[in-house]
Specification:
Blueprint (H helix, E strand, L loop, with lengths): L1 H21 L7 H6 L6 H12 L2 H4 L1 H9 L5 H23 L5 H8 L2 H18 L1 H16 L1 H5 L3 H54 L4 H16 L17 H12 L1 H8 L4 H15 L2 H5 L1 H10 L9 H9 L2 H39 L5 H22 L10 H25 L5 H21 L3 E2 L2 E2 L2 H22 L10 H5 L7 H23 L1
Antiparallel strand pairs: 1-2
Amino acid sequence: MFGIISFLFFTLLVATVSYWKTKNDDQKDADVFFLAGRQLPWFVVTGSLMLTNLSTEQLVGLNGGSYRHGFEVMAWEIVAAVALVVMALVFLPRYWSGRITTVPQFLENRFDSQTRQIVSGVFLLTICIGFLPFVLYSGAIGLEGLFNVSEILGVELGTAIIIMVWAIGLSGAAYAILGGLEAVAISDTINGVGLLVGGFLIPILGIFALGEGDFGGGVSRLIENQREMINPIQETEATIPFGTLFTGMLLINIYYWCTHQAIVQRTFGAKSLKDGQKGVLGAAVLKLLGPIYLVLPGVIALEMFGPDLSDGDLAYPMLVDAVLPTAFVGFFGAVMFGAILSSFNSALHSCSTLFGLDVYKGTINREANDRQTVIAGKVFGIALAILSMIAAPFIAQADGGLFILMKKLGAIFSIPLLAVIVAGIALPKVPALAAKIGIPLGAASYIYFSLIKENHIFGYEVNWLHFAGLNFSFVLVFLWIFGLLSPRAELETPSNEEVATAAGWSHAKLASVVIVGLTIAVYAVLHIIGS
């Protein structure tokens, strides 16, 4: 009972603070609703980036992956730090110079309005199929592990999952649709502090449990028995071979952190380019800490429970249930609930933004005022939330790890989209027609070779991440050749001088060098320990 009371208290506290901070906002103003009036300080940008990204699909999915495969799965976290450096130094200055609201708007400036509409539709489809249902389902699994909802309600697990999916979905929709970006960002920041505290607490308690009260003994036991699992660079049978860090792994992270609307929208709401860059690089530093609470618990669960769990995605919920004192269950449940809401409401709000600005005002009603645009975005957000809540329980029927499945589905469109955006920045001769062909061409190539042919290319099997890299190269080369054969008549890409006019953070490059150095150091240290 105490756990439930503390859960409700912390959850309501976050909602109250978010409401109090945003109650006077003009939700009819598109700039306020979609971009928080461009007034977010850097630390709120950092917190919102982290919580938008961090949710139970990672807490459950990545720890489930480390339970199966060890620390090699930490690449999803560590390589993200490098992608955030790319965002701060390359993408964000170009976005900022155009004062854009959505990534498709950037492509309209570079190509044409039809490209913007196509990319908006693809973004919406990708988020709807490859993200929102996974957040809801993994959140329901995590809360079931904490509170045994099925037992409390006296229903079967599947029914409990459906109930929790709808509870999470309705709560998240309320934040995204009623509060706008500022409410989402404020709740993200508060929950972010709680999640970091709770997230670090689980592996610490797990190590104490392994050592029967002796932290050093727990560390020694883990290294002695799971040394190979601690090594992030596996020599044989690796699901994430080290070489993929420089191909598909890097590209998928660059797509996510540099072009995914749910992520980059936080930086568009920053007070200045300086705040945006500081916020992005602050998030990069925090990503380097990710393996402690997103990977280590899975290996601790392997040592504690053995390798015979029926589903690796149960490893994290079981560990939490085993080591977390009852007094902390409610707090941790509230923080986890906040993380779920953060990812869900952030993606949902971004979809409302894309639909309202790019589809409704861009195509359906070009004369729409701010109030009409905001209403259209909210209505679409409600419909999308309902669709996601219906779809989420069906993920239980899918085979394989939750997190990897989400990434594989996302790569259908993310890789060709990234190729088009990179071409828009780096290849000024590429015309709009090439972009319109390149996206479906890359998606069809991925579906055929990676999903249907199971990563077999002309008789040779390659890791799916390597194929993602090959597919990116294929689309980019296609765009480059198309641009050579049929170059654009007019070049409208912003010049380097225009990009440079925005006043960025003077220490951004130095901070980026330090972050990349720390990324290499993390791999080196863990490789030495695990060898």
